[in-house]
Amino acid sequence: MPHIVFNKTDLISTPSSKDGVDFKFIAKSYNFTSYERSTEYKIAVENENKEFLLTIKDKDDNQMIKSDKITRVAPITIVKDALNSYVASINPTVVFSNTNTINQKAEPLKEYLKDINYFVDEFETNKEIQIEVGFGSGRHLLHQAKNNPDVQFIGLEIHTPSIEQALKQMKLQDITNVLIVNYDARLFMEFIDSNKVGKIFVHFPVPWDKKPHRRIYSNEFINEALRVLKLDGTLELRTDSRKYFDYCTELLTNLPKGKITIDINKDLAVSSKYEDRWKKQGKNIYDVVLQSHTIDEALVIQKDFSFDFDINFEERIGKITTKSIVEKDFFVHIEDLFTIENEKNSGLIQLTMGNFDRPVSKYVIIRNGKFDYYQGTPIPTSSNIKAHNKLKEILK
Fold first, then answer.
1. Are 296 and 197 within 8 A, CB to CB?
2. Rounded to an integer, what distance in angstroms lies between the CA atom of residue 130 and that of residue 197?
């Protein structure tokens, strides 16, 4: 993480500018925690039309300024330039710096790697959609895409090297009908319209025998899969784990409606290197295919993250709970509170919220008693909406 260590000195005056970087305000930690720690500050910055925060805290006998881990922006040179401009403004003695931006290589173009916001706000297609969950090496995903050019494929994967490899192979093989997203499949389906998907592939998911709550298959995932699948669309599991096969079969056979097909050691046109190895070892490969027999109602995404009340932040700051609020399918935890210096009734609330498997960390900014999310609202998952409504109860 880029940072600069320098001798202790006065903070920058805000609002101010240096080398095209705007420093908008300084927020000081309220320090409501019971243990002692050095005072932490957040510096609100705008550089190249992107707003983010920098963090300043004591480091031994010096001070350190670094990028804020919650409000990261890309490319990283934007943050490094802001750090360098801050230090140039106060002109301290620099002890350490790793913010040299000379000869920085441009980030590679990744036109087929999409942020989750793309699927919330922009994604549209007239093609049939097929989704592969955890595509790993990408062999199956790219084979399907190459042989079905009229289908729009979406690959879900959280392993960065696998994503990089798939993007590289797409370029080498001139495959243009795949979109890749680094996101949890258990939440992703919420942003796909009902009755739009022809096939969902879940090939060799991690069995999680010791942590079954982390499995991709659950009643909630299956129900969401059935909602997005068109009539006669299929959810296709392929696994080498007998325990996982038994677990999924039990879930699927308790559905009120649908057709299930089971195969053992079925050969596909393409297989992964791991599947080849397992077959050589004599392990069985199980296929369980669920076919949808229903048509579901159209999806309506709730996106209301507004705050319909004001607050006297100066009076309420000492009364806002810092205890984690944990419900069945979401949680809210206020991590820290900050007061904005030289502004009455203004501050920042640092919090983590939403789904247990994909929590989101955000800041809520209060200016003159009015609330808003800093750097935009959270992704509108159902768990984030529920967490937002609970946060409103806490703040009231």
1. no
2. 6
